Amino acid sequence: MLAKPSLDHFQPLTDRILMALPGRRSFWIAVWALVPWANAGLNLLLDTGGTSAVWEQRDLLVVLNYAALSVSVAVTLWGSARIARQLGSLGGTPKRVFDGGSTNTSFREVNSVTGPLVLSLVSAVAFGVAAYVRDGWEAAVLRGGTWLIVGVALWTFLWVYGSLQLGLDRLGRRHLRRDAAIVDPTLGLRPLGGVAFIGLWMLLVWFVPVVVTGLPDIVGMAVGGCVLAFTLGTFVFSLWGLHRQMIAVKDEELAAARQLYAEAYAPLRDHATLETLDRQHSLLSAAEALEKRADAIHEWPIDQRTWAWVIGLATSVVAITFGRVVVNTLGL
C-alpha cells in the first residue's frame, strides 16, 4: 500500500514503490536498471522479431544504448529521491525569505502518483501498439511491459523535475522579504538554486546519452539539440522570477545606501573643510559600507561557479552529439 505523504514531506512515486518493496533499496534499483537488458535477452530468446530500430544500428551502438538506458533508470530512481530530499531539507528556509504562508505547496505535485503513472501507461500502450502493428502480439506484450516498468522510473523523474521548475516559478511570483539582504547577499535563495541545478544535471546525464545512442545520426543530433535548448530554457525560466526579485531588492538597497551617502556628504559639499570632513567621516564610512553590502547582493540564486558548470554541461552535450556524427560519417 502506497501511503500518501503530507505536504511537509516529499516522496515521489518511485520512492514509495522502493520503500514498499522488501529488502535493500539498492538491490531493487539494480533489478529495475536491468529491465532493458532482460528485454533484449527475451527478444533474442523468443525470437519475436520485435526488436526496435536501435537493433538496426551497429552492435557497439546497440550495447551502448542499452547501457545508457540502464544507467538512465538507475539515475532517475536515485535522482527523483535526491530532489525530493533536497526540497525537504530546505525546511523553513523559504519561509524566512518570502512573505505569506507555507511554501511547501509550491512543490505539491512532487508527491503525485496519478501523473507519472498515467504517462507511463500511455507510453507503454504507444510502444505496445507500434510493436503489435509491426511484429505481432508477443512483441507488443514484451515491449509494452518493458516500457511500463522503465517508464515509471523515467516519467516519475520527469514529473518531479517539472514540478521543481513549476514550484520555483511559483516562488518567483511570491513577495521576497527585503530584510533578507541584511544577513545574506544571496537573500537566502542559494538552496533553491542548488536544487534547480541538481535537477538540471541529472536530467542531462540520463537523457542525452539515450538520445545520442538510440536515434540515427541527424535525428539524434536534432533531438539532442532541442532537448538541450528546452532544458536550459526551462532552467533559466524557472529562476527568472527569483532573478527579477533579487535585482529589485539590490536596486532598492543601492538606492537607499546612495541616498544616505549623499546626505552624509551634503555638509562637506557646503563646507569643504577638514573639520567638516572629520565630523562626517564616520557617517561617510558607514554609508560607503552599506553601498558595498548592497552592491554585493547576488542577482541570481546560483553563483558563478554553478553557471560555469551549466555552461560546461551544455558544451559537453554538444561535443558528444557532434562527435557521434563525425565518428559515423568517418565510418569508425
Task: Walk me through what this model shows.
By secondary structure, the protein is an all-alpha fold. The chain has one domain (about 15-330). The protein has 11 helices and no strands. The protein has helices at about 15-20, 25-35, 35-45, 60-90, 95, 115-135, 135-175, 190-215, 215-270, 275-295, 305-330. Helix 4 runs antiparallel to helix 8 (about 190-215). The two termini are about 50 Å apart. The model has no long low-confidence stretch (mean pLDDT about 80).
Question: Could you give the topology of this structure?
Answer:
Layout: H1 13-20, H2 25-33, H3 35-46, H4 59-89, H5 93-97, H6 114-135, H7 137-173, H8 190-214, H9 217-270, H10 274-295, H11 304-329
Helix pairs in contact: 2-4, 3-4, 3-7, 4-7, 4-8, 6-7, 7-8, 7-9, 8-9, 8-11, 9-10, 9-11
On the 0 to 100 scale, the average pLDDT is 80
Secondary structural class: mainly alpha
Which segments are poorly predicted (pLDDT under 50) over 5 or more consecutive residues? none
- Counted by DSSP, the helix tally is 11
Largest sheet: none
DSSP strand tally = 0
How many structural domains are formed by the residues? Answer: 1
Question: Radius of gyration over alpha carbons?
Answer: 26 Å
Order of helices and strands: HHHHHHHHHHH
Strand content: under 5%
Helix fraction bin: over 70%
Q: Compute the separation of the termini in Å.
A: 51 Å
Q: Please state the overall shape, judged from the principal axes of the Cα atoms.
A: elongated
Structure at a glance:
This protein is an all-alpha fold and 332 residues long.
